[in-house]
Design goal:
Layout: E1 16-18, H1 44-47, H2 50-57, E2 62-64, H3 67-75
Antiparallel strand pairs: 1-2
Length: 76
Amino acid sequence: MPNRKILLDEDEIPKQWYNITPDLPKPLPPFIDVETKEPGAGIVPRIFPKAILGQEMSKDRWIDIPEEVREVYRIW
């Protein structure tokens, strides 16, 4: 597969991520705890960093990209 690189001007760098969850025909199944094999939201804080939890659990269609991430995007 050929290597492809798309260069964007700074004003074209995305400001939001698309969250597919609201557009799915049915909700995703709950997370399963690998130790207990039981579903439950209690596992979520153990598998995702705190800063990511809001994004992972969000029902919003568009999620703002943190400015720190956008700054890294500008490097390339």
